[in-house]
User: Which sequence fits this backbone?
């Protein structure tokens, strides 16, 4: 990539981050009275529909503001970085005070009201509906600990992560909004704990060096699990496998989640670096190539929400998986085009290109760039943020995606990581 192209891309992505995404969320996401952040916005981002607070998104906000405060990209002033850290502290304090099931019950509630009181999503449902929410709290606390030098936040993250490990080890945890019976294993679990463990490792270097060997073993386990059990010899990374780590013949075992795979690809590249396993890189690059090939919608363009292992609509027998909620999700939304999937693809393709020099990754980046910025920025430029979800043909639609919330996690994180990549390149 020549200097002129890099400069053009830096200018474009910086404008998108600062003037479109962050300017939408700040200050409207801030709860100055009770702490934490508002996150229940409509799909188009135009209005706040609830003051409830999903723990999932609260943790993400803390991570984002902490990360913005410490970015190496010359995008923000010192004063802006200090403000980001203060905004992160609001979420850190709110979570520390309210997110746990009890003083000695290290599981996170899934949903809170504005003041932080636990709230049932539906009457009679348990409060700890998803271990993914716990993971995002760990991520936020660990990153804030590093940014602020806050050992108390680190200890909170570390204890919560240990609680997650215990639940994963014994198989007793919930995974809303991606529930799956114990007969199967979801890629999302080793994926999220690969990323979470690495974040805590980074913080442990400052606060608890003695914990690094144990965390390293965990990191190698989660990353290795993905590469050895979920990815096959053809570089297809299945979203679901059997509890015995074998592929399953039904449709659940014959599909790929392109967004998850492309996001996890850079998680895995990070882990390969942390574990000093450069031999993993070629497998990861091949997984990215295969995922782009089968995940791209050849008729309408863009990346599918779910695709079959050979591309297009997921196919396969349903016998034995008819009652799995994930099947209904797949059948209902396989052709949807989601905002976060494309932001992850932008970062992953650019990173792979800059690491390998392989022009095919650059062509993919350009292709995804063209689709993304033609379809996802809100047509109402007063709103500026991206639309969450489109129909397969690229037209807007209004339906719930995973959680009934909109937060800036993926877009902001990816734009920031892209800028850091571009600024790291020699002039």
Assistant:
């Amino acid at each position: 990539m020549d200097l002129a192209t890099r400069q053009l891309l830096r200018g474009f992505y910086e404008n998108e981050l600062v003037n479109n995404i962050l300017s939408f969320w700040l200050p409207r996401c801030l709860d100055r009275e009770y702490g934490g952040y508002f996150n229940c916005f409509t799909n188009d981002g135009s209005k706040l529909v609830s003051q409830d607070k999903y723990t999932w998104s609260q943790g993400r906000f803390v991570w984002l503001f902490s990360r913005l405060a410490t970015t190496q990209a010359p995008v923000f002033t010192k004063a802006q970085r200090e403000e980001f850290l203060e905004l992160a502290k609001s979420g850190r304090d709110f979570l520390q005070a309210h997110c746990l099931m009890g003083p000695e019950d290290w599981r996170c509630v899934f949903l809170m009201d504005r003041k932080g009181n636990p709230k049932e999503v539906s009457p009679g449902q348990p409060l700890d509906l998803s271990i993914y929410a716990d993971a995002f709290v760990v991520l936020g606390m660990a990153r804030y600990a590093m940014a602020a030098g806050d050992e108390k936040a680190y200890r909170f993250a570390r204890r919560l992560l240990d609680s997650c490990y215990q639940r994963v080890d014994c198989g007793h945890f919930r995974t809303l909004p991606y529930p799956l019976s114990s007969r199967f294993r979801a890629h999302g679990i080793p994926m999220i704990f690969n990323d979470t463990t690495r974040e805590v490792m980074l913080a442990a270097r400052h606060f608890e060096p003695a914990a690094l060997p144990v965390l390293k073993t965990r990191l190698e386990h989660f990353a290795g699990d993905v590469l050895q059990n979920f990815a096959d010899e053809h570089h297809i990374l299945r979203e679901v496998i059997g509890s015995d780590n074998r592929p399953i013949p039904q449709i659940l075992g014959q599909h790929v989640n392109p967004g998850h795979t492309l996001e996890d690809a850079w998680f895995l590249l990070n882990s390969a670096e942390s574990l000093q396993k450069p031999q993993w890189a070629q497998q990861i690059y091949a997984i990215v190539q295969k995922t782009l090939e089968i995940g791209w919608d050849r008729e309408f363009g863009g990346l599918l929400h779910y695709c079959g292992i050979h591309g297009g609509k997921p196919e396969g027998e349903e016998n034995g998986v008819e009652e799995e909620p994930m099947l209904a999700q797949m059948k209902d939304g396989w052709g949807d085009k989601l905002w976060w999937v494309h932001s992850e693809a932008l970062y992953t393709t650019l990173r792979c290109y800059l690491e390998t020099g392989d022009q095919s990754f650059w062509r993919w980046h350009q292709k995804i760039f063209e689709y993304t910025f033609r379809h996802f920025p809100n047509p109402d430029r007063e709103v500026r943020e991206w639309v969450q979800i489109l129909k397969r043909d690229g037209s807007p639609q209004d339906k719930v995606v995973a959680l009934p919330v909109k937060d800036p996690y993926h877009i902001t994180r990816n734009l920031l990581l892209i800028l850091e990549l571009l600024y790291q390149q020699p002039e």
